[in-house]
Design goal:
Layout (H helix, E strand, L loop, with lengths): L1 E6 L3 H10 L6 E8 L2 H11 L6 E6 L5 H11 L3 E4 L6 H11 L2 E4 L11 H14 L8 H4 L2 H7 L2 E4 L7 H13 L2 E11 L13 H9 L2 E5 L2 E5 L5 E6 L3 E7 L3 H9 L5 E7 L2 H12 L8 E3 L2 E3 L1 H8 L13 E12 L2 E12 H8 L3 H18 L7 E4 L5 H11 L4 E3 L7
Parallel strand pairs: 1-2, 1-4, 2-3, 4-5, 5-6, 6-17, 7-12
Antiparallel strand pairs: 7-15, 8-9, 8-12, 10-11, 11-12, 13-14, 15-16, 16-18
The structure holds NADPH dihydro-nicotinamide-adenine-dinucleotide phosphate.
Length: 419
Amino acid sequence: MSKVLVIGCGGVASVAIQKCCQVSDVFTELCLASRTKSKCDDLAAKLKGHTDTKITTAQVDADDVNQLIALIQKEKPDLVMNVALPYQDLTIMDACLACGVNYMDTANYEPENTDDPQWRAIYEKRCKEAGFSAYFDYSWQWAYRKKFEDAGLMALLGCGFDPGVTQAYCAYAKKHEFDHIDTIDILDCNGGDHGYAFATNFNPEVNLREVSAPGSYWEDGHWIEIPAMSIKREYHFDQVGEKDMYLLHHEEIESLAQTIPEAKRIRFFMTFGQSYLDHMRCLEDVGMLSTTPVEFEGHQIVPIKFLKALLPDPASLGPRTKGKTNIGCIFTGTKDGKDKTWYIYNVCDHQECYHEVGSQGVSYTTGVPAMCGALMMLTGKWQKPGVYTVDELDPDPFLDALDKYGLPRSIDENPVLVP
Ligand code: NDP
């Protein structure tokens, strides 16, 4: 018997909300709140008569802490699920603290305006000290650990697929499969085809920032940074086939380096087609990925926001996207004194997702873990004061829930390793 306030009503939120409505005995009430209330109203209308969960809707600008506080005080939820954008992580965490409510999200905080001098000074110091230059990192949200602990509240960070499920796979490998983990390779393959020359599978701003940033990986206790897309490998993915994949910086490496400190190397690879990369390079070269406003015919325009307006809405890709995703982790290490390799992954079919919830697989593989993370918190399986990433929590009930609600795991005891 719980009430959840969901903030954001885009591609990921739509899946998370529909999955919550499949578990109405836990998610008895949902309040859907977003910047554009009509999207919440449309989804509530679609779900009416198909779920026992009671749904209400509200308008909120989640950049404004006072608006959030007023909404939380009015709705009195047990949990706030942030499936808006990473830009709103800190304002929503502040509002949760002010109102004494638990919090969760699916992505690291990053600022909307990376030219803000105050943010930039901290960022540049962190780049030097930590050794990687991605705009997003955990430091901002880890700084809330004591505040949440003192308030007796829990904040769950990054509970999508990657970050999220991939960290649960690592926690599971450490708990059950290995005495010592030597290396971890996280592989994110999207074998889906939407038929457009160029489109992003989730929020274009967040996606293009991530992909155009320098890559980095963790080795022997420190970060190694490389130019964007400069390490390429080919890999044969189960049920997808042969794909090119590229080494990226990814947020879960930062937390895994702490929870599995014995790991000598942790890398993250994502697959991209040539058309995507060619378009991205070209857009970057002409300045279209910039977040710095430019003056155009008397208007201030942020190039990447203008580009977002031109690109297909990720939420509209559902009916067109065919093929499968395959995301998982390959481990090397030892068990009972013997060398061991082990691969755990999930395969998800875009069209099956579309037929179930009207979305493509990338929204599905993020929205289902968000619902399962909320389920863990609301049923007390994950409930301790402080700020946590998924790798710090018991993976067993979470992976069982994923198996049950649409993202079952597959295991390969003898995987081909990534060179
Ligand atoms: P979308 O752009 O589709 O949706 C974002 C939603 O947030 C929209 O409804 C938008 O409202 C709303 N929003 C934006 N700004 C505000 C604001 N100031 N106040 C209130 N609402 C706001 O994004 P996605 O659904 O693709 O992504 C959601 C989150 O999931 C992102 O943080 C993304 O990084 C994360 N993600 C995580 C993954 C993982 O595996 N961990 C994978 C993919 C995504 P409006 O309709 O008005 O624009």
